[in-house]
Specification:
With about 250 residues, this protein is α+β, with helices and mostly antiparallel strands. Helix content is about 25%, strand content about 30%. It has helices at about 5-25, 35-45, 100-105, 135-140, 175-185, 190-195, and strands at about 25-30, 50-55, 65-70, 80-90, 115-120, 125-130, 145, 150-155, 165-170, 200-205, 205, 220-225, 225-235, 245-250. The strands form three sheets. A six-stranded antiparallel sheet has the order 9-14-13-12-10-11, sandwiched between helices. A five-stranded antiparallel sheet has the order 5-6-4-8-7. A hairpin with a 2-residue loop joins strand 10 and strand 11 (about 205). Helix 5 crosses helix 6. The two termini are about 25 Å apart.
């Protein structure tokens, strides 16, 4: 991030945490990308002592809001995030639409990026997570994506959504971060190392600091420019001492 933008984000996070602590009410940021979440994590110890939750609408969400919680707590159904379903009005005559097309259509309405969370493609179209304050506007104004007429509606609840994935397996010398990034994204070890040393790799939303870090089952790895996966775990060893591992690459 640019230095000025980072300073503004740090100031905003500090202000929201202070308001929660002083007034005992829930406050929250807009949706943060992985770099912005890393900035939040670097500030945690210096913020007022209030509970925090990072929430994106579903378990494997990449973009998340930071919620500062009051003393009486709050369940996820009351977090200010809605799930919208966007699909062509007539699938037969629809263009082949991509994630970029849906995001571009939303941005074209003048919506700030911080109001929009993840966009996950589905067979029908996509699901889009947004701050609840944007729900009515998007439903009334999002009428087309490229030249395809679309319908946008609020989905009932959040808990039922899960992202589709492709299961990937293979053998590695050990379940190190660089080995798994190389396997899942079909990269050479050198290219995998470049993504890690270039500060483009995150584990559970935190910046990865070591290519040799061993992953535990259930951890989510996001690599900017490539995608994300969940490391499921290791299985049997080969005769040469390598281990079979399994991961879920999200699509």
């Amino acid at each position: 991030m640019l230095e000025k933008e980072e300073q503004l984000l740090r100031k905003r996070i500090s202000e929201l945490a202070a308001v929660c602590y002083q007034r005992d009410i829930r406050t929250n940021t807009g949706f943060l990308n992985l770099n912005e979440q890393a900035i939040f994590h670097s500030m945690e110890r210096s913020l007022p002592p209030v509970p925090t939750v990072l929430y994106g609408g579903f378990d494997t969400a990449e973009r998340k809001i930071v919620c500062f919680l009051p003393s009486y707590g709050q369940d996820t159904e009351r977090f200010p995030v809605d799930r919208l379903e966007i699909a062509p009005v007539n699938a037969r005559f629809s263009e082949e639409l991509t994630h970029r097309d849906f995001l571009g259509a939303v941005m074209g309405l003048g919506v700030d990026r911080s109001c929009i969370g993840d966009i996950a493609m589905t067979e029908a179209g996509c699901v889009l997570f947004c701050l609840e304050q944007m729900t009515g506007f998007l439903i009334s104004e999002l009428k087309s994506v490229r030249r395809t007429a679309v319908c946008c509606r609020k989905a009932p609840g959040l808990a039922s959504f899960s992202q589709s994935y492709e299961e990937v397996g293979g053998s590695v010398s050990s379940p190190r971060l660089d080995s798994l990034v190389s396997l899942v994204f079909r990269l050479s070890r050198a290219k995998a190392l470049a993504f890690i040393s270039g500060e483009k790799t995150f584990i559970n939303g935190r910046l990865a600091v070591s290519a040799g870090q061993r992953l535990a089952g259930g951890e989510i790895v996001s690599v900017r420019g490539l995608g994300k996966f969940c490391y499921v775990g290791a299985g049997n060893e080969t005769r040469k001492g390598r281990v079979f591992v399994t991961a879920r690459r999200y699509t």
